[in-house]
Design goal:
The chain is mainly alpha-helical. It is 52% helix and 12% strand. The strands form three sheets. It has a two-stranded antiparallel sheet. A two-stranded antiparallel ribbon has the order 3-4. It has a two-stranded antiparallel sheet with strand order 5-6. The chain is globular and about 55 Å long. It binds zinc ion.
Length: 189
């Protein structure tokens, strides 16, 4: 995706939060998200996407982001079933609830760039606002159908399709290979 590097980063973080923090199935197996300390560690890992330094994440912040991740999942699921209206209403509700507001920031030797923050000034509030804004930018663009849910059997992990022609169907090469192998076996029998 090429909106700008910050939008790409928060959209990648939204994908990471949904996939790590929502229960379901992942690559052929039931998936239960981590809790407590392990959840906080998983969130710190996701927020360090793109070589950012991993922030300190309190368990309460990770719990708040797990709740946000459930809401974000609904956006991916709505787009995946072709219901962009529901996705847009859900994102608008998140933007309002997080009180997302633009804020020019300059840090780590980067030039001034646009961040979106929540009103409360908490880590979870800021990332909730950032993820909501990132998905709003995607839904408001011609690439609005690029949010997806894995179509492999027994997998519901989400992805953003950044391929040129928009033909991605799987969360990972692991799922792509599972489906290919199954198709190969089916042909051979
Ligand atoms: Zn998958």
């Amino acid at each position: 995706m090429n909106f700008n590097s910050h939008t790409d980063a928060v959209v990648a973080i939204a994908v990471g939060l949904v996939n790590a923090l929502t229960a379901g199935e992942a690559r052929g197996r039931p998936y239960q998200p981590p809790v407590g300390e392990a959840r906080a560690a998983a969130v710190a890992d996701i927020l360090s996407i793109g070589d950012r330094p991993a922030p300190a994440v309190a368990e309460a912040e990770a719990d708040a982001l797990a709740e946000v991740a459930g809401r974000l999942r609904g956006v991916f699921e709505a787009v995946a079933r072709g219901d962009v209206d529901t996705a847009a209403y859900a994102v608008n509700a998140l933007l309002a609830e997080t009180d997302a507001r633009p804020h020019l920031d300059r840090h780590d030797g980067e030039p001034w760039h646009l961040h979106f923050r929540g009103a409360g000034g908490t880590l979870s509030g800021n990332y909730a606002a950032g993820c909501a804004t990132g998905l709003a930018v995607v839904l408001g663009s011609e690439l609005h159908d690029r949010l997806g849910v894995c179509t492999a059997p027994h997998c519901d992990r989400v992805y953003v399709d950044t391929s040129r022609n928009g033909t991605r169907r799987f969360c990972s090469t692991a799922c792509q290979n599972r489906v290919k192998t199954a198709a190969f076996r089916a042909r051979g029998s």
